[in-house]
Known about the structure:
Elements: E1 7-11, H1 17-26, E2 30-34, H2 37-45, E3 51-58, E4 62-63, H3 67-74, E5 77-85, E6 89-92, E7 103-106, H4 108-113, H5 115-119, E8 125-128, H6 132-142, E9 147-151, H7 153-158, E10 162-166, E11 174-181
Parallel strand pairs: 1-2, 1-3, 7-8, 7-9
Antiparallel strand pairs: 3-4, 3-11, 5-11, 6-9, 6-10
Helix pairs in contact: 2-3
Amino acid sequence: MDAARPRVAFQGARGAFSEQAAWRLAGAHRPLPRRTLAAALAALADGEADAAVVPVHNRIAGPVPGAAALLRRHRGLVAARIWLPVVQHLVLLPGARLAALRSVASHPVALAQCGRFLRARPGLRALPAWDTAGSVADMKAAGDPTRAAIAGARTARLYGMRLGPRVDDRPDNATCFVLLRR
């Protein structure tokens, strides 16, 4: 194990809020993105990761579904905890027009954080996705200007996408993340 640069597993693609929490909680690290929370915790249990970052609660959406049960099952040592401010934006392909959008994808917890925005646009279909950053990567790969994603500003920059308006329901939006170690 490289103690100066631990391997930190997290749920999501590069640019996810969980990765941002990992930087804040573990400092410089080697990121291990995983598709699910279960896979991130399995990487820790199997020794592939030195630590894992898990979102446990959001101020708008409440408890992260499944997180508490996974934490009980894996019994990792909670080494640190942080409330990370979460600012959700509409993310679009460069050149895409807001008026042309037909769907928006993001993680179900992120969609729950943006209920007011979505209810005000009944013609915009909300599509649950595996991750906020992953939904941006998927949108970029599809290249469809009628699709958008909900994610953070850092994610939009990372993938070279256009940053749209802030769309979360409250300015105090934040998620509690824990850093687990074996």
